[in-house]
Amino acid sequence: MVDLSKRSFFSRKQVDETNVRLPWIKSASEFTELCSRCGKCADNCETNIIIKGDGGFPTVDFSVDECTFCYQCAEVCPEPIFLAQSEQPWNAKAAINNQCLAQQNVECRSCGDMCETMAIKFKLEIGKVAQPNIELDECNGCGACVSVCPTSSINVSNLV
């Protein structure tokens, strides 16, 4: 077992609880305690976004694609670390930083075009191109907006 809090003592880095691991994880502590790092979740991910992260634990890489919430990662996992599919998959939300093309007054709506839940809306402003606004209540944290952003201005993280 790898205790990430103890690893941070030697690396002088804090464990970032805002990192998105996998959907439907019961708790971060239970995940690091029980995950055997077998890789079955990554092998069965339909969009191939599950990669080996810190300590070999699976994590999500939205720069590749989005999470379709197919639940295949949980179905193949031999460990009891996942919630039921009927539960909320995670408390992850997207955020747009100031490198966004629209904030630089360049027309771009790539993120909004990919947002299936239509959580990214564009607000018209005088003298500027329409500015993106994420309605957090509608964002499911799927990450569809991340890989299509030409300036890598969108990040999905857990709300803590």
TrEMBL record:
Keywords: 4Fe-4S, Cytoplasm, Iron, Iron-sulfur, Metal-binding, Repeat. Its cofactor is [4Fe-4S] cluster. InterPro entries: 4Fe4S_Fe-S-bd, 4Fe4S_Fe_S_CS, NapF, PSI_iron-sulfur_center. It is found in: Cytoplasm. Residues 26-55, 56-87, 130-159 form the 4Fe-4S ferredoxin-type domain. GO terms for molecular function: 4 iron, 4 sulfur cluster binding; metal ion binding. [4Fe-4S] cluster 2 binds at residues 67, 70, 73, 77. PROSITE patterns: 4FE4S_FER_1, 4FE4S_FER_2. Transmembrane segments: none annotated. PANTHER family: FERREDOXIN-TYPE PROTEIN NAPF (PTHR24960:SF46), PHOTOSYSTEM I IRON-SULFUR CENTER-RELATED (PTHR24960). Belongs to the NapF family. This is Ferredoxin-type protein NapF. It comes from Vibrio sinaloensis DSM 21326.
